């Protein structure tokens, strides 16, 4: 069964450093997403991406965040200057774009900011 | 603004018991509802997807129902096993492309 692949599985970074989280969505999917889950809290939406541009973003997704699809397969989330409160599990997801199909999520990247 | 609530927050049952997990949402204008399983420190595994026009979906020992008008869904797990121990998340897709999640029900099935 097709999978969404995320790397790395765990990243530790110092406050103020830039991090890039990487995802390979399912190949024939058209919509890509980033969600995050702070420990003990709900999974929350960050951003959706379609046709090489952001289609929707949440209040969390401020100027410190950016997304990119640098080639035909990768989808990245960059955090420019990490803060302690950015520590969370970050999930990438993709969908075909047809609401008859559900989301497929990756296994996540645990980001720890120290 | 859509809010999703899951009750109970945690549930502990003996092996073999049938159980029901509940999910409620405040805005009934949804396209679909998806149930996920999350193991500790792991990703989200999709279990069942119910479209807004459907009443239920089944997969093996799992059955999910949807009552859109009352804003409720249930996940029924038959003959529970220790391997079913995980957190179960409910998420709804509304007018935008984003899923709104509940906080989950942490299930422990004791041998």
Write a structural description.
The complex is a heterodimer of chains A (114) and B (111). Helices cover 0% and strands 50% of the residues of chain A. Chain A contains no helices and eleven strands. Chain A is an all-beta fold and 114 residues long. In chain A, strands 2, 4, 5, 6, 9, 10 and 11 form a seven-stranded mixed β-sheet that branches. Chain A has a four-stranded antiparallel β-sheet with strand order 1-3-8-7, with no helix packed on it. Chains A and B meet through strand 4, strand 5, strand 9 and strand 10 of A and strand 4, strand 5, strand 9 and strand 10 of B.
Describe this protein with a few key phrases.
heterodimer, A: 114 residues, mainly beta, 7-stranded mixed β-sheet, 4-stranded antiparallel β-sheet, 11 strands, globular, B: 111 residues, 6-stranded mixed β-sheet, 5-stranded antiparallel β-sheet
